[in-house]
Design a protein that fits this description.
The structure is a single chain. The longest helix is centred in the middle third of the chain and has 17 residues. This protein has 153 residues and is of the alpha+beta class. The protein has eight helices and five strands, in the order H-H-E-H-H-E-E-H-H-H-E-E-H. The strands form two sheets. Strands 1-3-2 form a three-stranded antiparallel sheet. Strands 4-5 form a two-stranded antiparallel ribbon.
């Protein structure tokens, strides 16, 4: 008898965050749109092949969009979708846990880490077909539509 796929929300979340590389790429893209080389440099230690495979998987899962510009030299940018942006609290929780663990080991928070914390905690606006709205604003609008209340704008 074949195993049933898990319906556990933690398992579902891990499907989207299936490797350490994906979490680190997500951390970078939570700071804004980036090019392939910028991501590779920021993540450090990731091969070009692994970065390409990870970005493709994230794109398949609907977490990332890839925009290719017809320029010479070619330019490709990666950005988070609303689904990708919705993973922000997960990454912030991981960041905060790591900071506490470092503190337990006697390490102090550097200015660089403090700045990164502020960037990660900032909610970004994600472009959507219905106009640019923050992720929480779109969630509120979707909830109102379910209830039959259709807000203007």
């Amino acid at each position: 008898m074949a195993e049933q796929p898990s319906q556990c929300p933690v398992d579902m979340t891990l499907d989207y965050l299936s490797s350490r590389w994906i979490v680190l790429i997500l951390r970078e893209l939570l700071q804004g749109t980036k090019r392939f080389g910028e991501i590779r440099k920021a993540v450090g230690g990731i091969s070009q092949k692994m970065l390409t495979a990870s970005l493709r998987l994230m794109e398949e899962h609907g977490v990332v969009t890839r925009t290719a510009y017809l320029e010479i030299p070619p330019r490709v940018e990666y950005a988070l979708t609303a689904l990708g942006e919705s993973l922000r609290p997960v990454v912030v929780a991981m960041f905060d846990w790591g900071v506490r663990r470092k503190g337990d080991q006697g390490e102090e928070m550097t200015e660089e880490l403090s700045a990164l914390r502020e960037v990660l905690r900032r909610k970004r606006r994600v472009k959507s077909p219905g106009g640019e709205k923050s992720v929480p604003a779109r969630r509120k609008q979707a909830a109102q539509k379910k209830k039959g209340n259709h807000p203007e704008g």
